[in-house]
Amino acid sequence: MPRRASRVLLITDPSYAAGHVDAVVGTVADALGPRFAVQLRDKEASSGELRVRARALRALTRAGGASFIVNGSPELAAEVDADGVHLPGFAVDPSVLERARAIVGPARAIHVPVHARDEVVLARDGGADAVLVSPIFDSPGKGPARGVAALAEARALAHLWLYALGGIDALHVAECHRAGADGVAIIRALLDAPDPVATARALISPWTRTPQPSP
């Protein structure tokens, strides 16, 4: 499991202004510390733009003691001293995991998305540290919801850090926890929240009420 595994993973969305994202990241990182992580995802940005955003978010997360994950680029993750990398192409080409490990080294976490049983097994056998299991609930453009049974299945298959992704909010998080999730990955639930810190605390509440062993 990742050495610095969080309960709430915020995936950035370029449709939100950078200033807004930075404000949310800064306040939530200060409040949650290592229980919070941020994944930089922007498929349209140039490499230079991504580098600028990565450095800014790395500084904000480090100041608050939170983790920082880079989407898609092991090289950028290593360059900015991120805590890990997310590999969106894993299901198409599992060998990207081995190549990424050679770049980021053993100390950084490798996250992969999983949408089916076979992908959980590939992640487990390929040496991933964490999986984002989705879509758990209805989420725009993500296909049919798989339900929390997908989390229970992944938990039975692999001793990896499990994030629930897809339609997650404070009303659903307890179900994810009971099904075996170690945390939740969210976008709108936090970036649209009137009070991001209160929302983040609600999202981690099942794990703070139930003591869990450190990864």
Automatic annotation (TrEMBL):
Residues 10-190 form the Thiamine phosphate synthase/TenI domain. CDD domains: TMP_TenI. Pathway: Cofactor biosynthesis; thiamine diphosphate biosynthesis. Keywords: Thiamine biosynthesis. It comes from the Bacteria. It comes from Pendulispora rubella. This is Thiamine phosphate synthase. Pfam families: TMP-TENI (PF02581).
